[in-house]
Amino acid sequence: MLDAAHARGERLVLVRGHPGYYARFGFGPAAAYGIRPGFDVPSEHLMALVLGGSWPVAPGTIRYPAAFGV
Questions:
Q1: C-alpha of 17 from chain center
Q2: 55 conformational bin, left if phi > 0, alpha if psi -120 to 50, beta if neither
Q3: What pTM was estimated for this model as a whole?
Q4: How far, rounded to the nearest angstrom, does the alpha carbon of residue 33 sit from its chain's CA centroid?
Q5: Cα–Cα distances in angstroms (integers) from residue 19 to residues 16, 31, 40, 51, 61, in the given order
Q6: Which three-class secondary structure state does DSSP give residue 61?
Q7: What is the pLDDT of residues 30-48, one digit of tens each?
Q8: At residue 43, what are phi and psi to the nearest 5 degrees?
Q9: Is the pLDDT of residue 68 over 90?
Q10: 39-60 average pLDDT score
């Protein structure tokens, strides 16, 4: 799936999950990039991976559409 995202030209992948699991795929804390969850979840469970280089990452707060209920 990460290969497909990279092939589409995506530069950043964010996941909400267990840090111990996603770290083995190269993910690190999104907070290190200034990215915060806009919902109730421990910040260490929001993980980020920059694909294909060291692109600048815009900081901010993640917001889901209302349909997701978070």
A1: 10
A2: beta
A3: 0.84
A4: 10
A5: 9, 12, 16, 18, 19
A6: strand
A7: 999 999 998 888 989 999 9
A8: -60, -30
A9: no
A10: 89
Q: Which structure tokens are listed for 60?
A: 């901010």
Pairing of strands 46-50, 28-29: antiparallel
CB atoms within 10 A of CB 46: 22
The pair of structure tokens assigned to 28 is 């690190």
Using pLDDT thresholds of 50, 70 and 90, give the confidence band for residue 55: confident
Spatial CA neighbour of 50 closest among 11, 24, 16, 8: 11
d(CA 31, CA 62): 11
Q: Which two tokens stand for residue 4?
A: 């497909």
The dihedral sign for the CA sequence 54, 36, 3, 17? positive
Sequence-distant (6+) residues with CB within 8 A of 51 are 2, 5, 6, 10, 11, 12, 13
